[in-house]
Inverse folding.
């Protein structure tokens, strides 16, 4: 693996995961302070971000790929599956968990995905557990546990609905990460992510059309937050995350993506002014240690 390509992959997944985490906190503010509905936010953010990604592809890369993905029945079906069970599933379950709990809880529960991916790869006999795998999984899960509970299960005060949606989000993220590899082997990430977002938005539009919103009641700062969620927390975050799969393995990408809960917790603490205990800071150190450990290793070959 070319060192420069690996460094690029690490930059993409770290930036994407960080923006994703911050975007979740901003979305929480939209839900709590501005009365924005989950269904509507997921629909509008996927629609606009998807169109923007395809526009970037059209003006900067091979524009023929935009419609070429639909010409083969097999790839078209794969894209639809990815759009529904990958993109839409990740987006909706994550936002629903935020709405029922908060951004920190949602992202921490979502990042059970690395464990799900490693278990899946082991069961499929596509990888074997190494000593490094045990350490990174321990740091990821231990860090998430400490951040979520502050060291004591008795202090966990999260609605059951938030936990369920968060775990479903982790499952969706695991599928999203693994399934994307097949499509990325044939088409640019902008094409795959852009169309997947549009597919997800179109489907959810039957539940909550994007035009059904009292736009006049949303103040200027609300539109600023909305723009951040769509551009940085969705378009750039998903693009960078999925593009990193071209340089890193699905397992590495998912583990490195644990920066998302760290970003969500820090913004929740310093921006939304929620309390943060000593054990939660220890959890933060565990996640940073895991990231440093992952970034020092070599990439494994992608498994199809």
């Amino acid at each position: 693996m070319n060192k420069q390509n690996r460094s690029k992959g690490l930059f993409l997944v770290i930036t994407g995961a960080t923006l994703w985490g911050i975007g979740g906190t901003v979305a929480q503010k939209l839900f709590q302070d501005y009365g924005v509905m989950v269904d509507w936010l997921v629909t509008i953010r996927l629609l606009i971000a998807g169109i923007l990604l395809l526009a970037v592809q059209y003006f900067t890369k091979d524009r023929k790929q935009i419609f070429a993905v639909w010409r083969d029945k097999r790839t078209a079906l794969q894209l639809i599956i990815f759009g529904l069970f990958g993109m839409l599933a990740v987006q909706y379950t994550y936002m629903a968990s935020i709405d029922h709990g908060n951004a920190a809880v949602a992202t921490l529960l979502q990042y059970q995905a690395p464990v799900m991916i490693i278990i899946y790869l082991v069961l499929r006999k596509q990888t074997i557990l190494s000593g490094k795998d045990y350490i990174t999984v321990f740091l990821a899960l231990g860090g998430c546990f400490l951040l979520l509970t502050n060291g004591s299960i008795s202090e966990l005060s999260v609605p059951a609905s938030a936990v369920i949606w968060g775990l479903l989000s982790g499952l969706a993220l695991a599928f999203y990460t693994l399934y994307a590899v097949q499509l990325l082997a044939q088409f640019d990430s902008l094409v795959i992510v852009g169309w997947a977002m549009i597919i997800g938005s179109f489907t959810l539009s039957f539940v909550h059309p994007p035009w059904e919103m009292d736009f006049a009641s949303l103040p200027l700062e609300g539109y600023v937050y909305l723009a951040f969620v769509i551009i940085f927390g969705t378009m750039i975050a998903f693009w960078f995350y999925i593009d990193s799969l071209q340089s890193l393995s699905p397992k590495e990408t998912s583990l490195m993506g644990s920066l998302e809960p760290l970003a969500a917790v820090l913004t929740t603490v310093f921006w939304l002014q929620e309390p943060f205990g000593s054990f939660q800071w220890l959890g933060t150190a565990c996640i940073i240690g895991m990231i440093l450990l992952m970034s020092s290793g070599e990439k494994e070959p992608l498994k199809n």
About this structure: The radius of gyration is 18 Å. The longest helix spans residues 3-34. The mean pLDDT is 85. DSSP finds 13 helices and no strands in the chain.
